[in-house]
Amino acid sequence: MILAASNSGSIQVSLGEVAAALALVAIAVIASRAWNAGLEEDIGIAVVRSFLQLSAIGYVITVIFDEDSALLVLALISVMVVFGAFTANHRAQRVPGAFWPLLASLGVAAAATLGLVLGLGIFEATPRYVVPVGGMVVGNSMTAAAVALNRLGEDVHDQSRRIEATLALGATSSQAVMPLVRRSLRSGMITLVDSTKTTGLIFFPGTMVGMLLAGADPTDAVRLQLILLYVLLGAVSIAALLAISLARRNFFTPAHQLREPPEP
Amino acid sequence: MLFELEDLTYSRGGKVVLSDVRARLPVGAGSLLGPSGSGKSTLLRLLNRLADPDKGRVLYQGRDVREHDPLTLRREISLVPQLPALVDGTVHDNVAYGPRLAGRSFDARSCLELAGLDPGFEDRDASKLSVGEQQRVMLARALALEPRVLLLDEPTSALDQAAREAVEGTLRRLRARTAISLVVVTHDIAQAKRLAEYVVRIESGRVLAQGPAAELLAEPDEEPAIGASRDAS
Question: Is A9 helix (H, G, I), strand (E, B) or coil?
């Protein structure tokens, strides 16, 4: 039971091989129990959910690849954007009305980056390329937008006295919140920027690993990974910037007043 | 009349903070006097539209504050909050903040001097100053806008006696040297008497009494008889 590339160049993976990898999960469970970390239940849920969710999306992708329908691809990416906005909204609880800014930012990030890579001819406009790249774009954009808005919500709450003091000097709400916007944008993007800086030195990114395992030429694997990293950098910056730009207004009334002023 | 407060009601988080507040503040030095939690700081914030009442209206020089552009209004009626809340940078950066936004010229050194600070403070890091010094930088940056009215929320509550006397001296000099009006929120009857010509007493979100300080606070150690003063309601 050893993974190997078939004659066609792609690898075949059996359920038995997947089950064998659970041995590593057993180590995680043992470690959690030994150190009383209390993560056994969460690890169990994570294993079951990952199996079910990835199996389900595997079947969905198989259907979409077979059908080769642009409408189905669009529907799948739209569902990803909506679920991404819901998930990110849950993490940005201190931001009033965060859902719509998140939905718009993820939608625009996905449309702009996919449109660009297809328009520039980097990828073929077929489901085999658009679906996985779209998934990565939406997933990374969701994380960046959620982190950025979470930081913005915390900072506006913690610094409401300073914000109101600048409003009292005749600053607009945009001017009053600008220093916080810069920090939030940085928070949303720094993880991907840092991992892009260290890629190849400290870790091998997933796409490259997947391609190498699947038997691809290392040069091709590296080039595709670079394309994806650059696409993702663009996507997360669009998502974080747009989410912050749209959501920051929700902290204020049209008369430049904090909706939740500091406690007297 | 500088401010007329007409039946103001304001709630926050389901709790009534101000209830049917009716009061007047003439041009000059006024004080909103009351114990902690009485709603006086909230009332101060309604005067330059940092918040709007749920009911009632605030008239500034006879005109509803909601008819003014809020940014212009706040440059004309400048508020200094109870605790220092400076922007990152030097003292100069802080004094320059308001005038730069408004596209106006300013003289940082004379503003610092007016606020009772040595002009040599201009290039110092604002975050490294003592609380008393920061509070005076807050005053200087409000003065840099050349406001007609200065709203001061417990301006000396975070200060020791020497700094408090310095700030009070600054405010008295300000009144003597400029045409500025003051509205000082305080819980300290003696301070209201030292600084204000007209006093509005507030408790539990309601106006208890109002009138000239000389009448209302005749006996600073005793509670003034509400019936002897002009009741607001």
Answer: coil
d(CA A161, CA A264): 10
Q: Across the interface, do A170 and B98 touch by the CB < 8 Å criterion? A: yes
Residue B50: which of A162, A164, A175 has the nearest Cβ?
A: A164
**In percent, how much of chain B has pLDDT > 90?**
69
Residues of A in contact with B41 (CB under 8 A): 264
What would the DSSP string read from start to end of A47-93? HHHHHHHHHHHHHHHHHHHHHT-HHHHHHHHHHHHHHHHHHHHHH-T
For residue A66, the one-letter residue type is D
- Give me the torsion for CA of A258, A263, B3, B5, rounded to 10°: 100
Contacts of B51 in chain A (CB under 8 A): 257, 261
Do B42 and B48 form a contact (C-beta atoms < 8 A)? no
Of A167, A257, A264, the CB nearest to B52: A257
From the list B74, B88, B138, which residue is nearest A170 (CB)? B74
- Cα torsion angle, A219, A221, A225, A228, sign: positive
Helix (H) or strand (E) holding B77: strand B77-80
Query: Is there a contact between B70 and A256 if contact means CB atoms under 8 Å apart?
Result: yes
Whether B44 has its CB under 8 Å from any CB of chain A: the answer is: no
> Residue A254's closest chain B neighbor by CA?
B70
- What residues of chain A lie within 8 A of the CB of B87, using their CB? 162, 166, 179
Preferred mutation among A169, A177, A180 to probe B, highest tally of B CBs within 10 A = A169
pLDDT tier for residue B219 given thresholds of 50, 70 and 90: low
> How many Å lie between the alpha carbon of A191 and the closest alpha carbon of chain B?
26
Q: What predicted TM-score, i.e. pTM, was given to this entire model? A: 0.82
Please state the φ and ψ torsions of residue B115, each to the nearest 5 degrees.
Answer: -85, 5
DSSP letters spanning A170-224: T--HHHHHHHHHHHHHHHHHHHHHHHHHHBTTTB--HHHHHHHHTT--HHHHHHH
Question: Tens of pLDDT along A173-208?
Answer: 999 999 999 999 999 999 888 888 888 777 778 888
Token code pair at residue A75: 């529907």
| pLDDT averaged over every residue in chain B | 89
pLDDT at A123: 87
Question: What are B51's two structure tokens?
Answer: 């918040």
Dump pLDDT digits (tens) for A212-253.
888 889 898 899 889 989 999 999 999 999 999 999 999 999
Count helices and strands in chain A by DSSP H and E runs: 9, 0
> What is the residue whose two structure tokens read 């990952």?
A50
Measure the CA–CA gap between A227 and A225, rounded to whole angstroms: 5
